[in-house]
Amino acid sequence: MIDNSIFDNKTVFSFEVFPPKRSSSIETIYSTLDELSDLSPDFISVTYGAGGSENCSNTLEIAKRIKKSCNVESVVHLPCLHLSKAEAATMLQQFSENGIENILVLRGDRIEGRAPAGDFLHASDLSGFIKVTTGNSFHLSAACYPENHPESESIFSDLNNLKLKVDSGCNHLISQLFFDNHIFYRFIENCRLAGIDAPVEAGIMPVINRAQIERMVSRCGVVLPEKFKVMLDKYGDNDEAIMDAGIAYAVNQIIDLVSHGVDGIHLYTMNKPVVARKIYEAVKNIISIPKTPALAS
Ligand code: FAD
């Protein structure tokens, strides 16, 4: 189980992977997991039906593989909007039986044409349910949004709702991707002012092609800084060049975040271990230095 003391004096470094499409076999991800594990991350998290695509059946299998064969702590994402309480209870039972102890509690994206099950409207409803039904059997994490969740009414309501998630048992947060570190620093300051003191990992997504970033911007509404747009304009049509530039951009973001004492870096790997390795090699001596306290902009 993740022990929050890992955040005390080191920069936590973690990865996120997603299950292969339903048309591909689960084995297609095994070599990716082996290569990512070689980089000794603190944990690897596995998405579950992200984007409403329902490709969720392999999440548990992949999390088991990470833990049992790769000897790395795994975290399962668990979106709840379309789950009933009975289904959630069954899944928690399956997690326990398979040695999975860490859950990223999520509301999840809406699935077009499918009504919510109605038992859980927000992530905090699920974390409350898990705490009431299983006590401290699981370490719970949650998502947070440096640029506000797209549906939130205001920065204040989003922070209040985030505080509810932490108060309901999620004692570790992973942020949505962002490309402007100053936005993240302001968000952390606001969290601390709002009494949210859980460690917050910065979600970093290396941009490796133009289509990927256009999809992300339309889905998450993240701000693209001027220098990022210039980079995309200049190299976006050349696959090799945009990958080099995207990796360099992510490395610069990470160095700046670690210099400012970030709790952790959560790398959205896009199942590309080559990219994760290049980033890891570029920052490994920086992230291994004992952490300096408190982020400041
Ligand atoms: P919530 O915390 O429930 O928040 C959603 C909205 O409701 C926000 O606007 C919030 O302010 C508001 N709100 C929250 N609580 C309350 C309350 N009590 N009362 C009123 N309003 C409230 N999606 C997937 O489907 N699968 C995945 O694997 C996945 N992984 C993700 C991993 C990370 C790190 C991140 C950042 C996102 C991930 N997502 C995933 C996307 C996520 O599910 C969506 O962003 C979804 O729209 C919100 O989920 P949430 O858990 O943040 O929701």
From TrEMBL:
Catalysed reactions, semicolon-separated: (6S)-5-methyl-5,6,7,8-tetrahydrofolate + NAD(+) = (6R)-5,10-methylene-5,6,7,8-tetrahydrofolate + NADH + H(+)
PANTHER family cross-referenced by the UniProt entry: METHYLENETETRAHYDROFOLATE REDUCTASE, METHYLENETETRAHYDROFOLATE REDUCTASE (NADPH)
Family classification: Belongs to the methylenetetrahydrofolate reductase family.
Keyword tags: Amino-acid biosynthesis, FAD, Flavoprotein, Methionine biosynthesis, NAD, Oxidoreductase
GO BP annotations listed: methionine biosynthetic process; tetrahydrofolate interconversion
E.C. number(s) listed in UniProt: 1.5.1.54
Pfam families per UniProt: MTHFR
GO cellular component terms listed in the entry, alphabetical order: cytosol
Cofactors demanded by this protein: FAD
Pathway: Amino-acid biosynthesis; L-methionine biosynthesis via de novo pathway; One-carbon metabolism; tetrahydrofolate interconversion
Protein name, UniProt field: Methylenetetrahydrofolate reductase
Domain of life: Bacteria
Transmembrane segments: none
GO molecular function, one term: methylenetetrahydrofolate reductase (NADH) activity
Transport as UniProt keyword: no
CDD domains: MTHFR
Claim: tRNA processing is one of the keywords in the record: no
